[in-house]
Design a protein that fits this description.
The chain has 18 helices and twelve strands. The protein has helices at residues 3-16, 18-23, 31-42, 45-52, 56-76, 133-152, 196-217, 278-289, 294-307, 310-313, 319-346, 351-374, 380-389, 394-418, 424-451, 465-476, 487-542, 549-552, and strands spanning 82-84, 96-101, 107-117, 124-125, 128-129, 157-158, 167-172, 178-183, 191-192, 224-233, 236-243, 258-264. The strands form three sheets. Strands 1-2-3-10-11-12 form a six-stranded mixed β-sheet, sandwiched between helices. The chain has a four-stranded mixed β-sheet with strand order 6-9-8-7, covered by helices on one side. Strands 4-5 form a two-stranded antiparallel sheet. Helix 1 packs across helix 3, helix 3 crosses helix 12 and helix 3 (31-42) runs antiparallel to helix 14 (394-418). The protein is elongated.
Length: 559
C-alpha cells in the first residue's frame, strides 16, 4: 500500500469517526483511539483471515498444477496444435487434459496429466492405481458422455460459467476461441458460454470430442499419459516429467521412465508470488466457504495471492496468532506514543498509564481486525460498503479503523468509570457519543451506495470498485463537479458533517434530558422546602406563647 493510500484511508477513518473523537477532545486520552484506528486501518485482517480458510496443501496442489500446465504447453507440447481442456467432472477428476487438433479443429491426439507435489505418491483407488489404465479410462469415458450429451442438447440458456459448476466442458472453435458447456447443478440443462451463432459449430465439435474420448476410454485408441513431480529445493522448484504409460502398483514415481527434468528458479523466494493461475482455485475455495459473489471471491483471491510470498502461503497459518501478533505490535506503538505525549506535556512518564494505554490499543486493534473479518459475513450495510469500495478498498479499512476508534473510546470511558472519575450516566452518555458518529456516517454511506443513483442514471449498486466509490461520494456531495455538485471531496465533508451532526444530536439529547432531570430535582427540592416551611409554621402556631428557659431548664451545678 502506498503512502498516499495510507493517508487517504486514515483521513477517511477520521472523517467517519470525527463525531466520536471530537466528543472526547477534552480528554488527553484521545491519542489512544487515533493510534488504534490508524493502525487497524493499515492492516488487512480480512486477508489474514482469508488465508486461514485455505489449506496449504490446496495451495500446493494448485501451484503444482499451474507449473505443470505451463510446462506442458511451453516445453513438452510445444510442437503441434495442443489445447487445454477442462478435465474435471468431479472432485476425483483428471488434473490435466490436452487435445491436439488439425486445421479443421478435429482431434488427432490426447494427453492426460497428473501433478504430484513433494512427497505425494500415486494413490490406490477402487478402479486401480492412479494414472493406471483402469483409473484414466473410465474418467475419459465419462467425459465422452458429457460431450455427447452437450452435443445433442436443446440449448436455450446462454452465459459465462460461474466459479463453481456441477459439470463443465469446453471445445475450441476453428477461430481458436474456447467456449464452454456447463451445468449449475447436476441434472439441469446445459448452458452455453458462447453466442447463438457459435452454438452449431460448438455442438458439432463437442460430438467429435465426445467420440474421441469415448474411444480413448474404451481403449480403441491410444493416448499419452504424463506425471509431473513438483519438488521444492530451497527457493527453487524441481520439476520431473515421467512417462506414465505403465504405472507400477507401488505408485513410486522414480520407477517410471524420466522424460524431462528442469528447475524453476526463485519460485519460493521472499519476493516470489503464487502463479496467477492459482487465483481461480483459491477463489473457488473461498466461494465455497463464504457468502460472497464470484467477482468478490476472485478479487479476494487475488489479494490473498499477492499478500505474501509463495513460501509463506504454502505454510500452515493461524488467524488467531496473526491477530494476537498485530495487536501486540499495536500495543507497543500505543505505549510509545503515550509515553511521548506524557514526556512532551509534563516532562515525566507514568509507566502505569502507558501500560493501560497499551492494553486499550491492543484490544481496540483486535476489535478493528474482527470488524474487517465481519465484512465477509454480515448483512446489507457492510455488504454495500464492500461492494462499493471493493474487497481491497477503503470500506474494509473504515470498518476496521472505525471499530478500533469507537472501541478505544469506550474502553477509556470504562477506565474512567472504574477510577470513579465518571458516573454511570456520564459513562452511558460518553459511549453513545463515541459510537453515534461512526454509525451515522457508515449508515449514510451504505444507504446511498445501496439505493442511490450515479450521475449517468445507473444505480450505484450496479457499479463496483472506484466507480462505485466515486459515484457514492459524489452523490453525497450533491452530484459530480460537471453536474454542478461538490464532487467526491464534498461527499467526504458531508460524511464528516453527518458524524458531527449525529454526535451533536446525541449530546443535545442528553443535555435536554439532563436539564429536565435538573429541573425535576430543583422542583422536588422546592417542594421539600415548602413542606418543611409549612411544618415549621404549624409548630410555631402550636406554641404561640413564648417559652421561658428557666421554666423548662434547670442548671445543674458542676461537681
Amino acid at each position: 500500500m502506498s503512502i498516499i493510500d495510507s493517508m487517504r484511508n486514515s483521513i477517511t477513518i477520521l472523517l467517519c469517526c470525527m463525531g466520536g473523537v471530537l466528543a472526547h477532545a477534552e480528554n488527553s486520552d484521545n491519542v489512544i483511539p487515533t493510534t488504534s484506528g490508524v493502525y487497524a486501518a493499515a492492516q488487512r485482517t480480512d486477508i489474514v483471515w482469508g488465508r486461514g480458510k485455505i489449506s496449504p496443501n490446496a495451495i500446493k496442489g494448485s501451484m503444482g498444477e499451474s507449473f505443470a500446465s505451463k510446462v506442458y504447453t511451453q516445453r513438452v507440447l510445444k510442437s503441434g496444435d495442443w489445447k487445454t481442456l477442462t478435465p474435471r467432472s468431479g472432485p476425483q477428476g483428471l488434473d490435466h487434459l490436452f487435445i491436439q487438433t488439425n486445421k479443421d479443429g478435429l482431434p488427432t491426439d490426447l494427453l492426460v496429466g497428473e501433478s504430484k507435489y513433494n512427497t505425494s505418491r500415486l494413490g490406490k483407488t477402487l478402479s486401480g492405481i492412479q494414472m493406471g489404465n483402469g483409473w484414466t479410462a473410465p474418467r475419459l469415458a465419462k467425459l465422452g458422455i458429457h460431450y455427447n450429451s452437450a452435443a445433442t442438447a436443446n440449448i436455450w440458456q446462454f452465459g459465462a460459467p460461474p466459479l463453481k459448476t456441477a459439470q463443465e466442458i469446453n471445445v475450441f472453435l476453428t477461430n481458436g476461441k474456447s467456449v464452454s458447456f456447463w451445468k449449475p447443478v447436476s441434472g439441469k440443462e446445459w448452458v452455453f458460454s458462447g453466442t447463438r451463432q457459435e452454438l452449431q459449430e460448438a455442438q458439432r465439435l463437442a460430438k467429435v470430442y465426445g467420440q474421441y474420448m469415448s474411444a480413448a476410454g474404451t481403449n480403441r485408441i491410444t493416448y499419452k499419459k504424463r506425471i509431473y513431480h513438483i519438488k521444492p529445493e530451497g527457493n527453487n522448484i524441481r520439476v520431473a516429467v515421467y512417462d506414465a504409460a505403465e504405472v507400477p502398483l507401488t505408485g513410486k514415481l522414480k520407477s517410471l521412465p524420466l522424460m524431462d527434468s528442469f528447475c524453476i528458479k526463485d519460485a519460493f523466494s521472499d519476493t516470489a508470488k503464487l502463479p496467477a493461475a492459482t487465483r481461480d482455485d483459491i477463489a473457488k475455495i473461498l466461494k465455497g466457504k463464504l457468502p460472497i459473489s464470484d467477482a468478490e471471491a476472485l478479487k479476494f483471491a487475488e489479494e490473498i495471492r499477492t499478500s505474501a510470498s509463495a513460501r509463506d502461503l504454502t505454510r500452515a497459518y493461524s488467524f488467531g496468532k496473526a491477530l494476537a501478533k498485530s495487536s501486540s505490535i499495536a500495543a507497543l506503538i500505543g505505549m510509545g506514543v503515550d509515553m511521548g505525549f506524557q514526556l512532551f506535556s509534563s516532562g515525566d512518564i507514568n509507566v502505569s498509564q502507558a501500560c493501560t494505554a497499551a492494553g486499550i490499543v491492543a484490544m481496540s486493534t483486535g476489535a478493528g481486525g474482527l470488524a474487517q473479518v465481519m465484512s465477509k459475513n454480515v448483512g446489507l450495510p457492510v455488504q454495500s460498503l464492500t461492494k462499493v469500495f471493493g474487497s481491497s478498498g477503503a470500506a474494509i479499512r473504515v470498518l476496521g479503523g472505525g471499530a478500533a476508534v469507537a472501541t478505544a473510546l469506550a474502553l477509556i470511558d470504562v477506565k474512567h468509570l472504574a477510577e470513579g472519575n465518571m458516573t454511570a450516566q456520564q459513562f452511558s452518555e460518553s459511549v453513545a457519543l463515541a459510537f453515534s458518529g461512526p454509525a451515522a456516517s457508515g449508515l449514510a454511506f451504505a444507504m446511498v451506495a445501496t439505493w442511490g443513483t450515479a450521475s449517468t442514471g445507473a444505480a450505484i449498486s450496479s457499479l463496483s470498485g472506484i466507480a462505485a466509490y466515486n459515484a457514492t461520494m459524489a452523490s453525497l456531495g450533491g452530484g459530480t463537479l460537471a453536474a454542478g455538485g461538490g464532487g467526491v471531496l464534498a461527499g467526504g465533508a458531508v460524511l464528516g458533517g453527518v458524524a458531527i451532526a449525529a454526535t451533536a444530536a446525541v449530546y443535545i439529547g442528553y443535555s435536554i434530558y439532563q436539564t429536565a432531570q435538573d429541573s425535576e430535582h430543583i422542583r422536588g427540592s422546592i417542594e421539600w422546602m415548602k413542606e418543611k416551611a409549612n411544618m415549621l409554621q404549624a409548630w410555631r402556631n402550636m406554641y404561640s406563647k413564648p417559652i421561658r428557659i428557666d421554666e423548662c431548664c434547670q442548671l445543674v451545678p458542676a461537681n
